[in-house]
## 1
Amino acid sequence: MAIAVLAPFVLVFLITAQDALAGNEEDFLAGRTMDCPGCQLADVNLKRADLAGADLSNANLSGANLHRVRLRGANLAGANLEGANLNKSDLQNADLSGANLTDAMLFEADLSRANLSGAIMVRALAGRIKLTRANLEGAEMTAVDFKGARMANANFKNADMRRSNMQAANMRRVNLQGAQLDLTGFVQAQLREADLSGAMARGVDFFDADLHGANLSDTDFT
């Protein structure tokens, strides 16, 4: 009986929430607000928009054009950015924890000091990306192109970076403790004073890489 009584109120609440969400999307696209958490914004074109500090947590931005968008300090935690174009975007200090960046384009994007812990970046195209002092602990980054990336002092602890391309990347003093690095290419990479302790590095290509001062204790180079 209680369920029968409450059901209409639950239905009204759901409809009201959907209407509010639709209103947020309309206001966001019209530029009246920069906050649109949980909004459905797939394939939206926001090229060169200034969204610094915006709240887009859990939003669906799959396939979105975010080329050169200013998202410094933005909240994109849990957002779906699968296949999104983030080339040359400014994501400094942004929160992308748990975000889905599968197949995303991140060429020359600046994610310095960004939080990408637990993020998914499978097959992302991230050549010359800037990840200086970024936190990528536990992130899934298999088969990512990081060629020429700048990621000094970044935290990759327990991250999965198998089969990725780190050619000529600046990885000085990065934390790779316990990281999965099997079949990853570090050709000409700068790994000075990097911490690879306990990492799985089977079949890794370190041709012409600089490992001076790196911590290789308990690293598996099978």
## 2
Amino acid sequence: MEKKRISLPGSRPGEVYEVINEEPGHYSLVRVVSPMARTKPKTVSQVEKAMKATPLKFTKSWEELRKMTRET
């Protein structure tokens, strides 16, 4: 299927519409809302705070990790 682009008054760049063929020669457009479009991007401070709060922490020393991952 080839993508076709048209301009709609009041629409913004990046908006996606689904075409519904109601009857021969009559179409309806329904705007498709992406779940990602609803969320605001996180600020740098929010990302840093989330990284500090993560439970993913090393529980072993580097030496222990080396011994576990190397053949002896």
## 3
Amino acid sequence: MDISNTQTIINNSDRLCIEIGGPTPQGYIFLKELGLTLPKNIIVTNISNPIILKPFSDNPTKHRVDAVLDITKMSYKKGEVDMVITSSLPHKLHDVLFEKSSRVLRSGGLLIIENEQPSDYQHAVATGFRPLLSSKISKKLSSQIYQH
């Protein structure tokens, strides 16, 4: 799949789009490098108390985390979510991320991971995801967009 098709999927998101773990202060480098923009209906969450920050430099009106999310429960209905994105989720929670995202994402939904770990690919495939776009952003870390 090319970048324009990925952006079309993002633009056509009419269900929930969830950011998990809190964005990095500089935003999503991977998405910016690819020229992709986030959907307008994204819910920004953190896995601890809400913190004040500027999550998306391209969206100056959004200055705080919307909610605290317990990723081990992720209480959304099956297929209720169009997109899950994470960049600051502790790596030890990535297994849970794949398991829970697989349940809540609709068929064709996107899982976007910045700072992917080497073991993430195997977990993604084992839980029903297929890779769409990837990028190496440092010597050790890469990022990936998966489709459910």
